Every structure is written in structure tokens, then in C-alpha cells.
Amino acid sequence: MKQLAKYLLPLCCGIALASCYGLDKEEYRELAPITVSGLDRTIYAKATETLHLDKLRVESESGQDLVYEWSYGKPAGDFPGMVDTTFISSSPTLDYTFDKAGSYVLRLRIDNGESIGFHYYDLRVQAGFDEGFLILCNDDEGAGSLAFVKKRSPQEEAEGAQEIWDNLLTINPEYDFRSLRDVYVFSSPGYASGILISSGDDEGSIYRLDPVTLSVTYRMKGMDEYGVRTGEILGERTSGTAHWAYLIGDDERAYRYEFSTDMLIVRETPFPARYGRQGLFASKTAGVRDILMFSEAGITGFPNSRIAGYAAPDGYEFINMAAGRIGAGQYDASKYYCIARTIEGAPKTVKIISTSSSLSSPTEIKTYDEVQPMLMNANTRIVTTKLNGNAYYDYDNKIYHWAMTGVDPVVPAEGAKPDITLPDGEQIMDICTNAVPSTSSAVVDDDQLLIATYNPTATGRKPGSLYVYSLKTMEKVKEYVGICEKPVAVAYKFPTSN
Description:
This protein is mainly beta. The chain has helices spanning 2-20, 154-159, 222-226, and strands at 34-37, 42-46, 50-53, 57-60, 67-75, 82-89, 94-97, 102-111, 116-126, 132-138, 144-150, 164-165, 180-186, 194-199, 205-209, 216-221, 230-239, 242-249, 254-258, 263-267, 275-282, 287-294, 298-301, 308-311, 316-323, 335-342, 349-356, 363-369, 382-384, 391-395, 398-402, 420-421, 427-433, 448-454, 464-470, 476-484, 486-493. Among the domains are: 34-125, Sandwich (Immunoglobulin-like); 128-268 and 422-493, no CATH class. The strands form ten sheets. It has a five-stranded mixed beta sheet, with no helix packed on it. Strands 12-11-10-37 form a four-stranded antiparallel beta sheet, with no helix packed on it. The chain starts with a helix and ends in a 5-residue tail after the last strand.
């Protein structure tokens, strides 16, 4: 019987298929679509105040009742990835009070009985100082201050809400902020967020601030720990449950600040930690910050929590370096680009050397004689962008670009035309971009250059200013003249997720 069934089954299937041959194809009705409009991609709310959304417009041809579901969660990866999702409403209008400031993903699910649509919004729950530009300053007597230029929501702009604060450190009257050196915003998904400020005061104070209220949550005394004051802050990195950034000490050593314990740990490096560079890399899934320190003799990196070094070629010294911020589809590896120049002789010879992000596989991509002195030195501040393969930097109070990934990566020399020339008397103190370090190569968010300046001859106003330029056009977007004391550092305070 089993043998008979084995032969009959294929035969029956064949007859069934043959009987279908020649029949007209059934016309399936297209499911009724859902069209949503009326809300901006970015939605702003204020913590502890009710967010009211009633501008939603929905079109559906199903003729059935619509079912709504609003929920929100923390960002995970690129937008609209989200985790820790919380349901908040089933109404077409939304009235909800968010208790905690931060950056979230707001999701709207709509079901018309035939189709289901998902719509995502970038939700910014603000509590005062969530997003904007931080300018760390000192006055002539060494008293420190932290100016802030807020990125206002459309509603705040319409209401004429305050945009500029000349000193947010007055929030912490119990601390005497002096000889401030660097400011750093840290935030990795799944880890604590905050702001770190280094100083050269008598106790080598390092301050940790809450990312929203800017209140001091911890003060470390570097002089008590290691007898050292620290300056430039670089980071941040994660490994397992560990979360840290690096600072450069006055003793040219590397110090690791552990965010989980607020501890400072010295790390021995193969070369002096004299200068620092922030490497921003981006793959197709995420972005990371890399830490680079260098002296004329060699470069130190910290790949995968290890310590790696790369010595300058014999007879050469390093002038400067940059990390290639990889854009979508542009390059297949994260690389460092190093400028080395002969110590003796004339004319001097320049080598442009690329290495991997672990400082391995060095490759000389260009060697040439320096006909005119290059417009670059070790103190030159360099930033990169996903927009292109250029490194933008300051020299002699002007902004230039070095086409480090181009076909001819020669460093600009005397006679080169600057990309940006500031008004007379403005001295460039620091530069940065508006990059969000965790975003992937698919998200181009670093399209502005921030330039903090000092004008010692200014009268009738404060000497510090901030200029914002577009990295796409190199045109000025906005200027904030005379808003602060003498700047020492500028940083973009991006929205954090916790």
C-alpha cells in the first residue's frame, strides 16, 4: 500500500497542476495604503512638561477604523533603531509627559485593517542645555567659565527663548573653577553620559558634569593622585563594561579616566604624549572615537585597549597627523595619515605616511622636497569630516584643508590660499565639528566647523567669539561675537541618550 501511495501522490499532483493550466490569473486587490503627514521629522519636548501633538494627518482608503499605537525608546545604532520600547498612547493625538531629558526615537504604528504603517521621529526631550556649543574660557586673572550657545527648537526660536549663556559654571557656586584647559562630551550607547573638564589649577582638578543640568557630579584632584595636572582630553572607548577617556598630563604621560569608578590610571606609552588627536571613524553600522598621542619621535595609539607605537623614520620627525573619518562607500579601511619631515638639511624632505588604525602596515604614499615652508606644525588643530577626505586645520589664524586622501596629498605651503579668513584681530583658539561620534557612515552629521576666537584688542565687549561655517560651502553660517572670555576649547554638545 505504501508503495502504491508513493507513485499515486506525484501523479495526482501533476493532474492538479495540469488542470490549472490556462486559467486566467486572479486579480488581487491592492491593500489600502496609509499616508501620514503633518509632523516634523524632529520633535522637541521639554522634560516634565506635557508634549501635545495634534497636527497628525492620516489618509486611508480602507473604510475601516484606524488603530494607533505610540511608543518610544532609546536610540540603538542608526535611526530609527530603538531599544527599551515603552508604549505611551493609542490616540491619534499624543499627550504625554517625559520625565527624563535625552534623545529618543518616537514610533507611530497605524493599522487600517489591511495595511500596517510604521513612522519614526527623532524625539529630543530637552531640559535646558541638551544640544549646542560649549566654549571653555579663562579671563585675565585665570577665573574659568563655560559659555553655551543653545541649538533652539523652532518653538523656542519663535518664542525668542534664550540662546546664549556666558557662564554656566555659576550653576556650581561651591567650586572655584580656575585655569581651565579642555572640555569633552562623552556618551556611548549603553553607558553613562556627561562632560569632562580638565584644569591646571593648584590641585589639578578634573570635573565631571551632568550632561543635562551641568552640575558637578565628581571632582578629582590629579595632584593628589599622581602629582600631575592634565590638559587635552581624548576618547572615548568601551570594552565590556569598561568606559573611559584619556587625558594628556603635563609630564607627557597618558592618563586613563575610568567613568565607572571616576579613577585616574597612568598608562606607559612608547613615546611621549606631547600632542593629542581625536580620531573619528565610521563603519556602515556605527562610529567610534580613537585616541592618538604623538611627539616628534613617534605616535602612540590604543587599539582594542592595547598600546601600540610607530616610530618616525630615521632622520625624520613627525609634524602632525590626522585620522581619516570614513564616509559611506568612500574608503574600505580606517587609516591614520602622518606628516614626517627631515630634521636636518635643506631643502627638507616630507613624507606622507598612512597606517592602519592599529598603527600597523605603514605605507609611504608621497615623498617630496619642501620648496616652500609648509603651513603646518605640531600645534595645528586638525578635524575631519564624512563629507570628504580632507583634513581641515588652523594655521596663522586662518583655516586650510589638507587633501590627505587625494591623489596628491601635499601639505599646503606658503602662498596657499586659505579656505577661511576671519576678521582682523581674531585669533583662533580651538576648532571642532558638529559630529555625533556614534553615528555610522550612512549618517553625515558633521557638516559644520566651529571656530572659537580671541581678540585681545576688542573694546566694549568680551574678547571671545564663536564662528560657525559650513563644511560643504565654507561659507559662514552664523557668528556670535563677544559672547565669552578668552576661549581655550570648543566642543559640540550633542544630544545624549541617557
